Amino acid sequence: MSEQETASPEKQAAVRKLETFDLFPHVNDALVLAGMIGLSYIGVAITSFAPEKSHWYWLMLVFVFAGVCIFAQWARGRGTEVKLSTLLRMQIFHWAALLVAIQVVYMLLRTGRIDFEATGFLLFLLLSFTTFLQGAHLDWRFYLVGLFLALSLILAIYVAAFLWVTLLIAILFVAAGFLLMRRGQAKT
């Protein structure tokens, strides 16, 4: 018999709850995650068209992403042995590393080593990588967000009609996410 078959009914129910867990109980998860992606695109646009304002936007975006992840992890961890202080410490280190990396990119910009376009691309890459790694700490859906951001960056580098191609891919990602969530709910 498998480990899940020999587990108590309470433990089996807890495992099913985690498998079908809504990150944000009062809002559709896909909307929140799509909002994170949309905010990232705005950051690239601001960096390209209003570079003097972009530094503050990217810093604010780190706090928004961190807040979303902290809330989701806190909501998921309620009722478990995980301490809030442990959760916060892990998340603060994770997102503080991104803040430091953003400052380094802006130091490169100020010293003339890179231009504004490269700055936007580097920040987008850092955000996608940090969000992807968040998937290891929190939920597989953050892997998808990070992967989508990275693919969007690659498209932005090679495709002039970046926005429209990316929008099509975003629709496909959201549709795939809905199908995966539905499939997971249908199994329970």
Topology (elements, then pairings):
Layout: H1 3-6, H2 9-19, H3 29-49, H4 51-77, H5 84-110, H6 116-137, H7 140-158, H8 162-187
What does this structure look like?
This protein has one domain (29-181). It contains 8 helices and no strands. It has helices spanning 3-6, 9-19, 29-49, 51-77, 84-110, 116-137, 140-158, 162-187. It is flat and about 60 Å long.
Quick overview:
The protein has 188 residues and is mainly alpha-helical.
Order of helices and strands: HHHHHHHH
Low-confidence stretches: 14-20
Helix content: over 70%
N-to-C CA distance:
20 Å
Class derived from helix and strand content: mainly alpha
Report the sheet with the most strands, covering strand number, pairing sense and barrel closure.
none
Strand content: under 5%
| Record field, number of beta strands | 0
Shape, principal axes of CA atoms: flat
What is the count of distinct domains? 1
Q: Can you give the mean pLDDT?
A: 77
Radius of gyration based on Cα positions: 19 Å
Number of helices: 8
Task: From the structure above, extract its key features.
188 residues, mainly alpha
